[in-house]
Design a protein that fits this description.
single chain; alpha/beta; Alkaline Phosphatase, subunit A; 9-stranded mixed β-sheet; 39% helix; 13% strand; binds zinc ion
């Protein structure tokens, strides 16, 4: 018996040694000393949350989870980059690089004239496509972490269709938007497998489809929780606005439902989840909250009905944050971000004239909150940029920061003990090995029309 156990023990040691040997393939960062990963990281990305409003609502007790992050960790303005277009900025956040380097110039991108492979000229007619991940010219943080053998889980991040190959899983924003709009999530087949291209690995399809919150399930009582009168009256006044509220509420609830399922069943070293509704509701409803700054006439009924929507959606965003934090360990680093701030009209920055629509309503002051082991409690961050997020995540993960990134790790929020134990290490670049696409042509999908319709209703395009 004892001999059998001894033999089994030897076999076990050999098996473990073989597995470890094979799993530890050399990554691109293996030429530098990598400190032990101190902990896990969670990024909660919430589009368009404005710094001053978030702070005020936290002071008033209406964003309690944000208030807790503010006292437990470091916080400050996350400076955005002009022209404040969300797909571009979320890609800056995910790469630590400027638009010139990452190549995602907006929601809509010019596609080269197929008759002429040479660079397009101004007088050549160009089709406008929806930017897709194959056009990104540099690695996203989840690809860098995957190459360093960290597990990742990404849900709903902008410009992640088709899904990147990662060590873990990735569910693109095309998928969360399209599935929440469908009543029956169909399994992909030969003619409809575009959706599964947004999920890596594709084998997760049925689990994704089982965790969707459908737009049809957003009942009147949910919409009424955001407005000040009955749903009947709201529908009469502003049909498009109320249906958009329902659509993006459903998409956000789908991201939450997916996070609940995947963060629990597949815990990863790096998790990221993105919520869109706060930006959309700000575009549609901010004017009713600050009607005096809106230069067009608004009816008294509409102002009364819709004035609470934006702040109530901010409160919802806070509860989404609280729910997602509950899904990870207490010692996980939590990074809360928005890509830009928001203002009712251009007057905010001293412009005069027309009522602002589309991206003119965005302003520079987004938010960043970071908490976790070794982050100074109650600290403030000054001068942080959207380009600093990936370098900071890499530093927290104990991985080198690349010199070809345009941002810097926010070391001022880390304690001296943390920095002694995990000094920031640099390498030249992560852009080695398999280079990401950098294609000039986006990959079309049936969700494109829906996105274009959304851009039209927000005033981004005619
Ligand atoms: Zn926006």
């Amino acid at each position: 018996m004892r001999r059998t156990i001894a033999i089994l023990a030897v076999v076990l040691v050999v098996v473990v040694a073989v597995v470890v040997f094979h799993v530890r393939r050399p990554g691109p960062a293996d030429d530098v000393r990598i400190p032990e990963a101190p902990s896990r990281i969670l990024i909660v990305g919430i589009d368009g949350l404005d710094w001053s409003r978030v702070n005020r609502l936290a002071d008033e007790g209406r964003m309690p989870n944000v208030a807790r992050m503010r006292s437990e960790g470091a916080s400050g303005i996350l400076h955005s980059i002009r022209p404040f277009v969300s797909p571009t900025i979320w890609t800056c956040i995910a790469t630590g690089k400027t638009e010139e380097k990452h190549g995602i110039s907006g929601f809509l991108v010019n596609t080269p004239n197929p008759a002429d492979a040479s660079p397009t000229t101004d007088n050549m007619p160009q089709a406008k496509g929806i930017a897709t991940s194959n056009m990104r010219k540099v690695k996203a943080v989840w690809q860098i972490l995957s190459a360093a053998e960290r597990s990742v889980g990404v849900i709903g991040w902008l410009v992640t269709y088709p899904a990147d190959v990662v060590s873990g899983y990735l569910i693109s924003s095309h998928v969360t938007l399209a599935l929440s709009a469908k009543r029956e999530a169909r399994a992909p087949n030969q003619t409809d497998d575009w959706l599964s291209e947004g999920i890596y690995p594709k084998s997760l399809w049925s689990e994704v489809a089982d965790n969707v919150y459908h737009e049809e399930d957003v009942g009147d009582s949910i919409i009424e929780s955001f407005i000040a009168t009955s749903m009947d009256r709201a529908r009469q006044e502003e049909k498009v606005r109320t249906s958009s509220l329902a659509k993006f509420y459903a998409a956000d609830m789908t991201s939450l439902t997916l996070a609940r399922h995947f963060f629990e069943t597949r815990p990863a070293d790096f998790n990221a989840v993105y919520f869109r509704g706060s930006d959309i509701t700000s575009h549609f409803f901010w004017r009713f909250m600050e009607p005096e700054s809106w230069k067009k006439e608004l009816s008294a009924e509409a102002i009364e009905t819709f004035s609470p929507v934006v702040e109530r959606y901010y409160a919802l965003a806070d509860s989404l944050l609280g729910e997602v934090i509950e899904l990870v360990d207490d010692d996980t680093y939590v990074v809360l971000l928005s890509d830009h701030g928001f203002a009712g009209h251009r007057g905010y920055r001293g412009f005069e004239g027309d009522v602002a629509v589309g991206i003119e309503m965005h302003r520079e002051d987004g938010i960043i909150f970071v908490r976790g082991p070794g982050i100074k409690p109650g600290g403030s961050v000054a001068g942080a940029s959207v380009l600093d997020v990936t370098p900071t995540v890499l530093a927290l993960a104990g991985l080198p920061v690349a010199r070809d990134m345009d941002g810097r790790p926010l070391t001022e929020i880390m304690s001296s003990t943390f920095l002694e134990r995990h000094p920031v290490v640099h390498i030249e670049s992560y852009e080695v090995g398999d280079a990401p696409g950098g294609d000039l042509t986006p990959i079309e999908s049936p969700v494109d029309d829906e996105i274009k319709e959304m851009l039209r209703s927000l005033g981004y395009i005619d």
